[in-house]
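# step 3/5: fold
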Amino acid sequence: MKSMKKKIVNGTEDERTASGPEVDLDFFRRILDTIPPSSFFSDDAKGKLLQESDESSSESDEIDGDIKKRKIEQKAKGNKKQRLNPLQSKTVSQIQFQSQPAEEDEPYSKIKEKQKHKKGKGNKKSAAGGGEGTPEVSKAASLDALRQKLTQMQKLGKERSLTSTEIQEQKRLRRKESKLKSKVKRKKNKNPELKAAGPINGNSMAGYKSPERPSVMDKEGKLVFSKFDFTKSNEKEKPKNSLHGKDFKRLLEKIEKRKSKIESLKETNAEKAKKLEQKNAWHSVMLRAEGEKVKDDPALLKKALKKKEKVKEKKKAKWAERQDTVNKKMEKRQEKRQKNIQDRKQAKKDKKLKQAKKKGRMVPGF
């Protein structure tokens, strides 16, 4: 039985990975063990526990027999009362096991069977519609209790500094809690009845979903994700600027064409010509107000055109000069090359003649 208790209290790697009520039992007992018994139990419970420990120590002393021997043993081993104090030497779950021997001393297999039996009954009740709650709801309630215990632990940690093992245990329990939460959520998503029952993780706002905002569409049928629509469809059509660019010749031609049109209209219809002049003037004013450059002054355009032509001519002359220098350099290089080739040929001939003279041959022309 003791080995079985140890397994339930301490847990193994298989039980951690496995799912079921025994893992939950192990989990909650581990959480309870992190809380010191002196802060967990009430004053009455502490008194009872101390009385029981005193009685058990007195019985063991009677069995020992000799008082002198007992005194020697006390001196050798230290203060026996302090050693047997359950609030200092034992965990919360161990004390609970001792206080409930009838329930806890049952074999682990029987406990498991009982839990399975209860679970089966609960499922039947939920199917029939007569049950008050589901195992997931009980899990949620236990999670709430677990949260309260964790807050208690945090308060105790503030009052006194926790040991490194206690801190590690606390971290592990928090990880376990998050795993349990995710497991409960998965079960809730799978089971539609639990969804209808509402949130089960103790938080009333967990099941609440904010209402979805209707998507706003602009005139062109595109999605707009802000309160204001800054798309081109909502903007007014900007006046088109035809008098822009750096083609001054084309701009001059346009202005002259416009002037000739107005002059021809003045001869036939003076009012219409005046309206057209005003329209053109307002158009250019509006464009300038928007920050655009309107090139409608013929004098300035002529000046810019002359300047452009001068720059063009200057560049042309510069390019021609550059080409001349390049051509001259190329000619010089070619001449030098040809001269070098001729010199090599002549040197070869002279060498051959010298060799022939040495051998005593008669060379014509020498």
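# step 4/5: annotate
The CA atoms of residues 7 and 273 lie 106 Å apart.
# step 5/5: archive (pending)
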